[in-house]
């Protein structure tokens, strides 16, 4: 299932008449963050190296995840990225369109400062520790897009859709598992 993250974005001074350059760090490693989800609140961490071997071959830059509009940039021609020990940075050259100019101006003024990214975690690429209420992502299979967003969920990184958590909650709603869940919670409370 495709998931989303949020991070910071900056505008660079134009190098020429038609250079609308944005740069940012949409993916940040090892930053515990509190996620507020329909299923409740929990902590999430994307571990260093989660992008190793990920498909980064065709990433689009969008505004607010709107796939019905023309992308603002696309790898490898108008957007580049660089993995480093802290996560992933990106630089994009926006088009000389009304939307490109509007987005660039809003970022430069500080009206827009958040970035999000959509991605897929493979089976076994994350785990949820019920005792610490933490989801740890160790592997990202594919990055689909980066988006410039008006309301980032939080400064470092944010997930908007949670396949692993949703699956866990669906299992917990199963009547046969309810008794087991109660028993596990009792055991966990005694061990704390």
TrEMBL record:
Pfam families: Peptidase_S78 (PF04586)
Prohead serine protease domain location: 8-162
GO molecular function: peptidase activity
UniProt keyword Protease, yes or no: yes
GO BP, sorted A to Z: proteolysis
NCBIfam families: proheadase_HK97
Name of the protein described by the UniProt record: HK97 family phage prohead protease
């Amino acid at each position: 299932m495709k998931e989303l993250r949020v991070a910071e974005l900056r505008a660079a001074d134009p190098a020429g008449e038609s250079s609308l350059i944005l740069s940012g760090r949409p993916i940040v490693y090892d930053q515990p963050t509190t996620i507020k989800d329909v299923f409740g609140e929990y902590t999430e961490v994307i571990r260093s190296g989660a992008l190793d071997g990920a498909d980064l071959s065709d990433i689009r830059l969008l505004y607010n995840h709107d796939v019905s509009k023309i992308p603002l940039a696309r790898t490898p021609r108008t957007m580049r990225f660089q993995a480093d020990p802290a996560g992933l940075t990106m630089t994009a050259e926006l088009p000389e369109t009304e939307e490109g100019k509007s987005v660039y101006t809003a970022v430069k003024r500080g009206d827009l400062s958040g970035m999000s990214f959509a991605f897929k975690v493979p089976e076994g690429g994350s785990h949820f520790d019920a005792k610490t209420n933490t989801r740890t992502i160790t592997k990202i299979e594919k990055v689909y897009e980066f988006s410039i967003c008006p309301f980032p969920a939080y400064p470092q990184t944010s997930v908007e859709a949670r396949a692993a958590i949703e699956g866990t909650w669906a299992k917990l709603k199963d009547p046969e598992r309810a008794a087991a869940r109660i028993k596990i919670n009792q055991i966990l409370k005694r061990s704390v």
